Amino acid sequence: MPILFLREISVYKLNSLYIMTIAIILSSQSIFANTEQIHQRIKSLPKELKPEFIDKTPIPNLYTLSNIRGSILIDASGRYLIDGDMIDLENMQNIADYNYQKHYAINPKQLPTANALKEVKGNGKRVLYVFADPDCPACQALQGILEDIDNITIYTFPMGLAHLHPTAIETSKNIWCSKDPVKAWKAYLLDGDKPNKRANSCHQPIDQNMAITKKYRINLTPTIFNSQGHRVVGVPELEGLENFINTVDHE
Predict the structure, then answer these.
(1) Is the domain of 142 the same as that of 74?
(2) Does 205 share its domain with 115?
(3) Could you tell me which residue ranges the Disulphide bond isomerase DsbC/G N-terminal domain spans (predicted)?
(4) Are residues 79 and 167 in the same domain?
(5) SS3 126
(6) Is 144 left (phi over 0), alpha (psi -120 to 50) or beta?
(7) Looking at residue 235, which CATH number applies to its domain?
């Protein structure tokens, strides 16, 4: 092979490498600039929207803002927030939820189900884990929706957000020590039937559950997990909850 041709190949490779390096540097600077701009913008957001994490998405110049409540989308300018579903049809992933679960999903097999009220409905094949405060209105609403779901095993971990509901922990203990804890739980959340005072009459795990909530950063109720360990905070509509329960990973 002529030396000149070799030199031309070498120069071509060097030029390509140089161009590629410049492109990477510019791209990195652009990403850095974009996230810096987003950081400036989010300073004015209300507390419930301020993120712990800013993640890129497969779409250029589109990012997700995630905190324990959920994820929303934001453009690189930091001007436009997009609150809603954006689906990658190639792998059927919800882009915002995918980034959210990267940070907040858990391994549900590590949950001590002996600390939960267990209700088996129908064939019990599907599984849902619920962390709920009995005095939380949203938890009461969720319980009503759960009544319409069949073929599931529900593990409910009674707890209490004492700063919001001062008697919730005691109520959870009273329910646990009832003759039929699942029935007592549902009677209280759905009908307001207060359990008898039995908090010290049995061994109950409510204090342990409070420690679990700290471990998994469960500071809003209800917080629910499906069999994949995916997290949802709040009360989905029935159809959305069914979809969440049936979720499988598309990795």
Answers:
(1) no
(2) yes
(3) 33-96
(4) no
(5) strand
(6) alpha
(7) 3.40.30.10
Asked whether 175 and 134 are in contact (CB, 8 A), the reply is yes
SS3 232: strand
DSSP 230: -
Q: Assign 208 to helix, strand or coil.
A: helix
Averaged pLDDT, 43-67: 89
Q: DSSP assignment, residue 115? A: G
3-state DSSP assignment of residue 114: helix
Question: Residue 170 in contact with residue 135, Cβ under 8 Å?
Answer: no
- Rounded Cα distance, 174 and 170, in Å: 6
10-33 pLDDT, tens digit each: 333 334 333 232 233 223 333 334
What range does the domain containing 45 cover?
A: 37-104
Domain presence at residue 8: no
- Judge residue 236's burial from the number of C-beta atoms within 10 Å of its C-beta, 0-12 exposed, 13-18 middle, 19 or more buried: middle
Identify residue 75 by its one-letter amino acid code. D
Six-digit token string for 14: 């060097």
- The pLDDT value recorded for residue 26 is 28
Cα(51)–Cα(63) distance, rounded to whole angstroms?
11
Residue 13 vs residue 205, higher pLDDT: 205
The two structure tokens encoding residue 61: 């110049």
Within-domain flag for 98: yes
Helix-, strand-, coil-residue percentages of the chain, each rounded to 5: 45, 20, 40
**Which of 39 and 130 is assigned the larger pLDDT?**
130
Instruction: Quote the DSSP letter at residue 198.
Output: -
Q: How far is CA 50 from the centre of its chain?
A: 16
Q: Look-up: residue for tokens 């159809």?
A: 239
- Structure-token pair, residue 68: 């324990």
